[in-house]
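Sanity check

After download, print the first record. It should look like this:
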Amino acid sequence: MKIYTLESTEILPVTLEEAWEFFSNPHNLSKITPPELNLRITSGAKREIYPGMIITYSVTPFPFVRSGWATEITAVDSLRYFVDEQRFGPYKFWHHKHFFVDAGQKTEVRDLVHYALPLDPLGRLAHPLFVRRKLDSIFDYRSERLRSLFGG
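Expected structure tokens:
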């Protein structure tokens, strides 16, 4: 199984507490996800994240392809980091760490994602042609939305 890595860093012009409040609310994920993914939370997001929380979604990763996705929040250190891991969904493996660093009246938000694709060796072929490009475009959109929501 080939494990890929995706990293992204944003500096938001908000306090650490404001950044944490936004990102620890699962409902805000739809605000920073491209509309064509048609992300819908279907269960489990009634409160701020906590270890063991299971959140289920419906998503359209590619046109005409609807997929269920379930993630578990496996670790939370308030105001520092949290981790979500896929329990079932479009990836063979998905481990997403969200880090928050206080920078005065700004906050550094860093994402570190490790993931693997199903259907090897087809997944390895699809990765540079489709999957990586799609993930890059999702994080680019997210960056634009965060700047729109928070400035900077």
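If your output differs, re-run the checksum step. Summary of this record's structure: The chain has a mean pLDDT of 94.
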